[in-house]
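TASK: fixed-backbone design
INPUT:
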């Protein structure tokens, strides 16, 4: 006597197929979500690229934002803290720093925008690289997207000397990533003999609008008469900003911080 095994196998095959179909649908939705996210970031980056170009041309972050928000009405400046001061720390006359917080209604993302400029007549010679970075008070309420930070630096004539995009890892010129990019902050080494000014744009993830935590720009300048060039220090994330440990014989200024930006009504 022979049994027809198909009667017993059919339910098993059916049950397996029922289990796999939802998984496939979930995978498709997940893939579609990632693709949509990537497309949104591409659109946002085009706007930020235009913004950085305006900063390069005007050397004024507010004039640049005025031009950009006229072109892209969905971009809004949500914090423009100035308070008639450039930084929270002692600010050398040779350095100018400004930062702003922008919101894109279309992409639904907050972006921290910062600009710095050294007086090209100051601090010349064979020097180690300077450090510049963006960091947050609290990554739980003002997290930085580690794949959404772009640095672009120029000489005093406006020629590009440095470029780094953490999302694509594209790099040009005299710049290097200072450690792994994290949601607490992202830093870079730059050769300030050539890079006398620049801008950083940083996309923020899941910002809590009920908090007064801030995002800041930090700059650490070094120099030496001993012929040390290139990267001459190590960087770690400290309790307030980045901690830079310089090599011996390297002279340096204390870290310089921007006023910082936060969401406000």
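OUTPUT:
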């Amino acid at each position: 006597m022979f049994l027809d095994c198909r009667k017993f196998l059919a339910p098993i095959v059916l049950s397996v197929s029922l289990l796999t179909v939802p998984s496939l649908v979930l995978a498709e939705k997940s893939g579609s979500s990632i693709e949509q996210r990537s497309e949104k970031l591409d659109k946002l980056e085009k706007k930020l690229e235009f913004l950085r170009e305006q900063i390069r041309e005007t050397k004024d972050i507010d004039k640049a934002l005025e031009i950009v928000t006229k072109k892209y009405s969905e971009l809004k400046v949500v914090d423009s803290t100035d308070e008639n001061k450039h930084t929270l720390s002692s600010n050398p006359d040779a350095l100018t720093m400004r930062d702003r917080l922008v919101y894109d209604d279309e992409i639904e993302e907050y972006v921290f925008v910062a600009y710095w400029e050294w007086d090209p007549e100051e601090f010349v010679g064979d020097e180690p690289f300077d450090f510049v970075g963006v960091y947050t008070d609290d990554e739980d309420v003002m997290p930085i997207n580690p794949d959404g930070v772009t640095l672009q630096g120029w000489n005093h004539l406006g020629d590009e000397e440095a470029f780094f995009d953490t999302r694509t890892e594209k790099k040009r010129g005299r710049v290097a990533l200072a450690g792994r990019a994290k949601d607490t902050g992202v830093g870079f080494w730059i050769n300030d003999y050539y890079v006398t000014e620049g801008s950083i744009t940083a996309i923020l993830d899941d910002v809590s609008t009920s908090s007064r935590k801030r995002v800041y720009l930090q700059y650490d300048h070094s120099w030496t008469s001993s012929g040390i060039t290139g990267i001459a220090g190590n960087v770690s994330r400290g309790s307030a900003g980045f901690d830079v440990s310089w090599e011996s014989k390297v002279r340096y200024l204390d870290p310089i911080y921007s006023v910082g930006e936060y969401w406000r009504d």
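COMMENT: Helices lie at 6-58, 61-71.
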